[in-house]
Amino acid sequence: RGIRVGYTPDVLTDATAELTVALLLAACRRLPEAVEEVKNGGWTTWKPLWMCGYGLSDSTVGIVGLGRIGQAVARRLRPFGVRKFLYTGSCPKPESAAEFDAEFVPLARLAKESDFVVVTCALTPATQGMCNKDFFGRMKKTAVFINTSRGAVVNQEDLYKVLANGEIAAAGLDVTTPEPLPTNHPLLSLKNCVILPHIGSATYATRSTMAVLAAENLLAGLRGDPMPHELVL
């Protein structure tokens, strides 16, 4: 119908990467669970293994989708003492990977060797349902799974089963299917699953920049000028 479409690329990379790291730490160090223990009286005397989780130091981090956000996540995780980065995607990205000495590997190997799996890929027919029973079955029992890409990349029934059965340690999700996730969804009953309401871009600065870009696109379109960021089909 000749309708022009503007969009707001690149503005949420840093905010989403920061949120991804926060979600990873919340899941692996059991922060929501620990906060609840303080509130409900579960915090009593010191116990050697109470509230123990998993740390990033000397770990292997696997990133599914080493695009702008994936690289920004790796950049933030490296100072935590990560020993090795693995990544997978549609093709190797040697120039991007060089900054982190990251190794391009098949998805199955990434699942098998990673202590932390971080999903930051695009949702495509190839990635839909990619994180499924077979994928989770290859992961370590001590591994932590994080998804800040799109909910449909994950088979949530399979994720629930492996979390409930202790086949992986924990998961953190900022995206689900559907959104909002129903309050009676089985994943919400699990202590080892941290779920956020898709707030990857939710910083004041990021949302303000998005709004300004949207307005600039709109005004340019109304004037018949080139949009600062136009989707060309």
From TrEMBL:
Assigned keywords, A-Z: Oxidoreductase
Organism: Pterocles gutturalis (yellow-throated sandgrouse)
Name of this chain's protein: Glyoxylate reductase/hydroxypyruvate reductase
Pfam families named in the record: 2-Hacid_dh, 2-Hacid_dh_C
PANTHER family attached to this UniProt entry: 2-HYDROXYACID DEHYDROGENASE-RELATED (PTHR10996), GLYOXYLATE REDUCTASE_HYDROXYPYRUVATE REDUCTASE (PTHR10996:SF137)
Domain of life: Eukaryota
Annotated ranges, domain D-isomer specific 2-hydroxyacid dehydrogenase NAD-binding: 21-200
Transmembrane segments: none
